[in-house]
């Protein structure tokens, strides 16, 4: 599956904010950019989309930054997709032609299943770092 860089960075930024959510710590833009190795100029645009959709809150000033607006457990991957790539889940096929209706129905069904799957993935799932057991020699 091909995910846009914008959506990937949004997920990574949200994961960073989720790691700070328990302490209600404001995280500076440059900290997120450095931790995730992303451009701060691009990241500010993404965080603005997330802010406009109500997923994050921002504070201005010397001690400003970003924090999650809601609980980590309440935010899903679907919410992030809707914030930064809403066209990903839109129905773009048409029903013209002899096979148009059947093709449209198939893609619409796949889109519904995909959206339901995105709703099951919580933001907390993006913060897990368990890569399996580590063996030392």
UniProtKB/TrEMBL annotation:
Gene3D superfamilies: Winged helix-like DNA-binding domain superfamily/Winged helix DNA-binding domain. GO terms for molecular function: DNA-binding transcription factor activity. It holds the Pfam family Rrf2. GO terms for cellular component: cytosol. NCBIfam families: rrf2_super (TIGR00738). PANTHER family: HTH-TYPE TRANSCRIPTIONAL REGULATOR YWGB-RELATED (PTHR33221:SF15), WINGED HELIX-TURN-HELIX TRANSCRIPTIONAL REGULATOR, RRF2 FAMILY (PTHR33221). This is Rrf2 family transcriptional regulator. It comes from Rubritalea profundi.
